[in-house]
Predict the structure.
Amino acid sequence: MDNQIVYLNGEYLPLADAKISVMDRGFLFGDGVYEVIPAYSGQLFRLEDHLERLDNSLRSIRLQNPHSHEQWRNLLARLLAQGLDQSVYLQITRGAAPKRDHAFPQNVTPTVFAMASGINPYADHDNGVKAISTEDSRWKLCDTKAITLLANVLLRQAAVDNGCAETILFKDGYLTEGAASNVFAVIDGVLMTPPKSPAILPGITRDVILEIARKNNIPCSEQAISKTDFKKASEIWVTSSTREIIPIVELDAETIGSGKPGAVWKTFYKLFQEYKQSIR
Ligand SMILES: Cc1ncc(COP(=O)(O)O)c(C=O)c1O
């Protein structure tokens, strides 16, 4: 992978040659934001939505976007291989300052990095995956896509340590999201997901699923979901740009529904693939 070409601060160069200063505030403080954008057959998926969310994240950390949306489109397109399904990761940090000080430095140029990776969302997921649940230990700005991900790292590792694919989070008895995903549940035949708030990342995949549901007259609702109601779900899914829609068949060692991906998931899997095809 070392000969993979990545973007760093205006240059396209082999990954092995992409170097930043140890004084970079991304390294020292996690002072930056990021996006992950899927690309199907070389076409960036819902790019405008991702760039709008990037604008919101940058506004939240009071950093100016170094590029216009058009510049981002061109910058990222050059990283994509024609015809492949990939995702692009982009990150902007507040840059490298001469000294380590928490307060914002003056006159420092942000560091901009981007790279493409392969995706294969359904590789192991035909039978669904297992999850655990725990208290949401993160901060109060979860709608900012910050690179400061230590809590998410620890929460995801807890899932891996338990032979599971994801950790589902609850705050004060209510569902928030996954360690790196949004969460949907089918409860009494209605597809539900928590409403947008600072407690969750406003996932682009989440928006697509709600759009698909509304277009197809499938009952859905954005509402607070208590742990008690969540435990009654006949289906649970986690969603993200790189994993799309993954059915959870076991939560905290208890079987969900029939223990197989459910009928509503199957419908949405099909509709989601059709939607992807329609924009290729
Ligand atoms: C904490 C968190 N929530 C939700 C998501 C899903 O967002 P999206 O569908 O835009 O990838 C992610 C994506 O990685 C995430 O890290």
About this structure: Residues 25 and 101 are 9 Å apart (CA to CA).
